[in-house]
Amino acid sequence: MEKRRLYMDYSATTPVKKEVLDAMMPYLTDYFGNASSFHTFGREAKNALDKAREQVANLVNAKPSEIYFTAGGTESDNWALEGVAFAHREKGNHIITSKIEHHGILHTCEYLEKHHGFEVTYLDVDSEGKVSLEQLEAAIKDNTILISIMFANNEIGTVQPIAEIAKIAKKHKVLFHTDAVQAAGNIPIDVKELDVDLMSMSSHKIYGPKGIGALYIKTGTKLHTFVHGGAQERRRRAGTENIPSIVGYGKAAEIAKSNMENHVKNLTELRAKLINQILEKIPYTRVNGSLDDRLPGNVNFSFEFIEGEGILLLLDMLGIAASSGSACTSGSLDPSHVLMAIGLPHEIAHGSLRLTIGDFTTEDDIDYIIEHLPAVIERLRSMSPLYDQAMKNK
Ligand SMILES: Cc1ncc(COP(=O)(O)O)c(C=O)c1O
Ligand code: FES
């Protein structure tokens, strides 16, 4: 029997859709011009760039002139924080963020604290992973220049009350940035309605190529340049544009927009089946993150008495690709900072499994994992001294 290849790690990255690849290909060969050139080849590239900017803008209801292409979510996060920090330091040096942000935010905050004299407040989150609006408002001071709270968490899928956070930021005249890398293209977003000032996005989480993303910068928002050089991206982000990837991102954004309703509905149904069946079949299991405000494709379990690494290994032998915590932390033995922040004890945080599903996930895939996961957990528990102890003490 051929070994199954079942991908359940869509939050780490997604495959490029065929239509996206088809849109990109001509821009690698026939239409390879530099968008800054005045000749026909340059104009072809420039037209493609303009079109992609419209497609990405349209995904989140921004104006095309408010979309700046970057090399991905991490660069957008770095730019937003450093750009605002350096442009507004006369007003103040205080930034507010949360403890469960991606390292693209957390490590940039640490850098600003350590090397540039900024002060950062890291807000706690509750057991579902939500920030408290009261705590947020109480943390704002006269010298606060920026609030950066992620739209949706990459590990536990919790979606934050973004509109309410934006309202508080506005009330206190503080800029608001949100890392929407997991959200933009996976759930509906309207930057005008939400009233955010800056928003990070990435292509490879929505079936576009890797290494390309965007920063939404609301018209009139002051921030420093991050990548210095040529006059590209209206002099705000230098470097010859990666036209094939930008075209791919544009196409992926267009598809995500037109497919949004279906995408959310299908994934939410598959997710519900997966969560319900696993909770029913496997005892001593909990779901991490909010059940109501959650990315449609995210499932995150903690199985008591065992280690996530063991689960991943046995699942991989069954052909199932999953993750424990997040792509970047699963290589380390430290428990995820997100699971610790929602208050999971060390040993339970270690036994966590993230299954993230996407547009190519079928009901048959869900059935396959529901069929095999219980035996995997049972096998690991049968080897666990902790489980043995717990059963004896019952
Ligand atoms: C919430 C969040 N922010 C930022 C990033 C980084 O994006 P990129 O991989 O495009 O640099 C990721 C990707 O894992 C993410 O999940
Ligand atoms: S670097 Fe921490 S989750 Fe990716």
Largest sheet: 7 strands, mixed
What is the count of distinct domains?
2
Radius of gyration from the alpha-carbon trace, in angstroms:
22 Å
Mean of residue pLDDT? 95
CATH class of the largest domain: Alpha Beta
Ligand identities: pyridoxal-5'-phosphate, FE2/S2 (inorganic) cluster
Number of helices: 15
Cα distance spanning the termini: 42 Å
Backbone structural class = alpha/beta
- The count of DSSP E runs of length 2 or more, i.e. the number of strands, is 12
CATH architecture of the largest domain: 3-Layer(aba) Sandwich
Which strands sit side by side, in order, in the main sheet?
A: 2-8-7-6-5-3-4
Q: Globular, elongated, flat, extended or rod-shaped: what is the shape?
A: globular
The CATH superfamily of the largest domain turns out to be: Type I PLP-dependent aspartate aminotransferase-like (Major domain)
Q: Which percent range describes the beta-strand content?
A: 5-15%
- Percent helix range: 40-55%
| CATH fold descriptor of the largest domain | Aspartate Aminotransferase, domain 2
Structure description:
The protein has helices at 18-24, 40-60, 73-87, 103-116, 133-139, 162-171, 191-194, 232-235, 243-258, 260-281, 308-317, 337-341, 346-350, 363-382, 385-392, and strands spanning 6-7, 67-70, 94-98, 119-123, 144-148, 175-179, 198-202, 213-217, 285-287, 298-303, 320-321, 352-356. With 394 residues, it is an alpha/beta fold. It has two domains: 6-14 and 260-392, Aspartate Aminotransferase, domain 1, CATH 3.90.1150.10; 18-258, Type I PLP-dependent aspartate aminotransferase-like (Major domain) (Aspartate Aminotransferase, domain 2, 3-Layer(aba) Sandwich), CATH 3.40.640.10. The protein has a seven-stranded mixed beta sheet, with helices on both faces. A three-stranded antiparallel beta sheet has the order 9-10-12. Helix 6 links the parallel strand 5 and strand 6 (175-179). The two termini are 42 Å apart. It binds pyridoxal-5'-phosphate and FE2/S2 (inorganic) cluster. Pyridoxal-5'-phosphate is lined by residues 72-74, 77, 102, 104, 150, 154, 179, 181-182, 202, 204, 213. It catalyses: (sulfur carrier)-H + L-cysteine = (sulfur carrier)-SH + L-alanine. This is Cysteine desulfurase IscS. It is found in: Cytoplasm.
